[in-house]
Write a structure and sequence with these properties.
The protein is mainly alpha-helical and 147 residues long. 71% of the residues lie in helices and 0% in strands. It is built from nine helices and no strands. The longest helix is centred in the last third of the chain and has 19 residues.
C-alpha cells in the first residue's frame, strides 16, 4: 500500500518538471501544509498530547526508539478532514494517506528533531523538511531513481 502511494507520488512524469520549474514536490507540499495547518512541530505535539498520544509523539522527538502509531490514531488526532485534505493533495485514497502518515510521520518528526528537541524556529523546520525529503523518498523507494 505504501509502495503504491510512493510510486504514485514519485512516478508521476510531471513531478520532476514541476520541481525543476521551481514548484514543490507534491509530497513536500503536502507535508509542509500538514505542519503549517497544525502550528509546526510544536502544534502537532500539542494535538497528539490532547489526543492522548503525547508520549508517542515525544518518543519521535527524543533520542530513543520511536513508538508506533496506528492509522486510526492519526485520523483521531488530526481529524478526518485533514487526512482527506492530505489525500486529495496527494491524489490518493484517505486510508492510504493515514497509513502513510502512521508509517512515516514518526520518522519525519525524528529526522526534523536531531537534537532530541523541537526547534521553535518555523523556517528551520521547513528547511529541515526540504532537506529531508530527497533522502526520505530515496530510502522509501529503495534508492531507485525515478525516470
Amino acid at each position: 500500500m505504501i509502495d503504491t502511494l510512493l510510486e504514485s507520488l514519485t512516478g508521476k512524469k510531471g513531478n520532476d518538471a514541476a520541481v525543476a520549474a521551481g514548484g514543490q514536490d507534491p509530497l513536500a507540499a503536502a507535508l509542509s501544509s500538514l505542519l503549517e495547518k497544525n502550528g509546526g512541530l510544536q502544534g502537532l505535539m500539542s494535538k497528539f498530547s490532547k489526543g492522548g498520544l503525547g508520549e508517542v509523539f515525544t518518543s519521535w522527538v527524543g533520542m530513543g526508539e520511536n513508538q508506533s502509531v496506528k492509522s486510526s490514531q492519526i485520523e483521531d488526532v488530526l481529524g478526518s478532514d485533514q487526512v482527506k485534505g492530505l489525500a486529495a493533495q496527494l491524489g490518493v485514497d484517505p486510508s492510504k494517506a493515514s497509513g502513510f502518515l502512521a508509517d512515516y510521520l514518526p520518522k519525519i518528526v525524528d529526522k526534523l528533531t536531531p537534537s532530541g528537541q523541537i526547534d521553535s524556529a518555523e523556517n528551520q523546520q521547513q528547511q529541515g523538511l526540504d532537506d529531508l525529503l530527497p533522502s526520505l523518498l530515496s530510502s522509501l523507494t529503495g534508492g531507485k531513481q525515478q525516470a
